[in-house]
């Protein structure tokens, strides 16, 4: 157990010496003094701590015993443990009969500080692990499949669940761009504090993704992507003080689902922003056809798709035909409504 470091040792010394009138020494697992009320002793090897660590129990050293041990002082020495593992030792300097009563109190305080630090470290490590999992999911490559399956088992994540990716982008002024990464990370922490089971990842200086999932068999409003979009947008508005856009991809099950959902969310944002730069929310489900066709806007596929409309370029009635076609699409391909809008008979 390597949780005990100089910073934590000093915190233990500072906090405990506020409540007891004796010097406190904190040693690592090798008996070296990491922090002490007597700063001159920092770095020394503590003989009493070595005995407490070796025996894994409290060791008292009186004046007579101290004279026989190099550099030792009278006092009480107790091993420190976190999670059942000894990680260091604690020493209270003074006549054993006087300091004994404080020994367990100080040890309890020290171990509580260490346990809190260990928990924080574990949560931070778990958070990084979850973020790496999300990043690898949205950048899915077949070669990473075995590793992703192992990660999913550790996190209790099932690829049979419906998966839905949201893309959140901060819309910052140019002079604030330098702080964008810190802003998006702060927002990520706030969201995680509200939804501790959330799977999130920072994907750019001002971008974050959130991976939502639910049981494929779920029915009702909670299984509807739009309802989940509304719930998340409410949460983000409450936690984000900066202008932002939120985009939702397609919901799918399977190992490749998150990657597809992420790409569809990003494409929906790009297309939606091009149509209305002032819009804040974008959804794959509101522009499914443009998103699905977006990959066909270049190359031979684009040329083939444009051939029917390109034929109008050589027709002398092209302006009228284009107007008719635009009106027809605008009225959901309804002949009667199109004719009425153009002021002509439906059989014209």
Automatic annotation (TrEMBL):
PucR C-terminal helix-turn-helix domain: residues covered: 321-348
UniProt superkingdom: Bacteria
Residues in Putative sugar diacid recognition domain copies: 4-137
Listed Gene3D superfamilies: PucR C-terminal helix-turn-helix domain
InterPro entries assigned to the protein according to its UniProt record, in alphabetical order: CdaR-like_regulators, CdaR_GGDEF, Diacid_rec, PucR_C-HTH_dom, PucR_C-HTH_sf
Start and end residues of each CdaR GGDEF-like domain: 145-271
Entry's family note: Belongs to the CdaR family.
PANTHER family recorded: CARBOHYDRATE DIACID REGULATOR (PTHR33744)
Protein's name according to its UniProt entry: Transcriptional regulator
Species in which this protein is naturally found: Massilia cavernae
């Amino acid at each position: 157990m390597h949780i005990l470091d100089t910073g934590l040792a000093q915190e233990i010394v500072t906090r405990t010496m506020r409540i007891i009138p004796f010097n406190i020494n904190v040693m690592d697992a090798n008996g070296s003094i990491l922090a002490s009320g007597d700063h001159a002793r920092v770095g020394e090897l503590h003989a009493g701590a070595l005995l407490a660590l070796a025996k894994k129990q409290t060791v008292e050293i009186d004046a007579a015993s101290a004279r026989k041990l190099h550099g030792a002082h009278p006092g009480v020495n107790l091993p420190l443990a976190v999670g059942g593992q000894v990680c260091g030792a604690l020493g209270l300097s003074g006549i054993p009969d006087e300091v004994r009563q404080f020994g367990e109190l100080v040890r309890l305080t020290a171990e509580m500080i260490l346990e809190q630090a260990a928990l924080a470290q574990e949560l931070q490590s778990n958070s990084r692990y979850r973020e790496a999992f999300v990043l690898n999911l949205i950048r899915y490559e077949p070669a990473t499949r075995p590793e992703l399956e192992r990660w999913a088992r550790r996190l209790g994540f099932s690829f049979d669940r419906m998966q839905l990716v949201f893309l959140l982008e901060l819309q910052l002024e140019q002079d604030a761009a330098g702080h964008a990464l810190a802003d998006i990370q702060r927002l990520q922490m706030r969201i995680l504090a509200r939804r501790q089971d959330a799977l999130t990842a920072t994907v750019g200086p001002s971008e974050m993704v959130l991976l939502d999932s639910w049981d494929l068999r779920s029915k009702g409003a909670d299984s509807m992507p739009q309802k989940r979009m509304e719930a998340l947008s409410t949460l983000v508005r409450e936690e984000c003080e900066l202008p932002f856009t939120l985009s939702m991809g397609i919901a799918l099950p399977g190992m490749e689902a998150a990657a597809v959902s992420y790409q569809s969310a990003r494409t929906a944002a790009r297309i939606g922003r091009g149509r209305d730069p002032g819009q804040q929310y974008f959804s794959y489900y509101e522009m499914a056809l443009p998103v699905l066709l977006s990959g066909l806007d270049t190359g031979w596929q684009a040329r083939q798709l444009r051939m029917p409309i390109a034929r109008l370029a050589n027709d002398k009635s092209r302006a009228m035909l284009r107007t008719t076609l635009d009106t027809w699409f605008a009225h959901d391909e309804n002949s009667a409504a199109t004719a009425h809008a153009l002021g002509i008979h439906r059989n014209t």
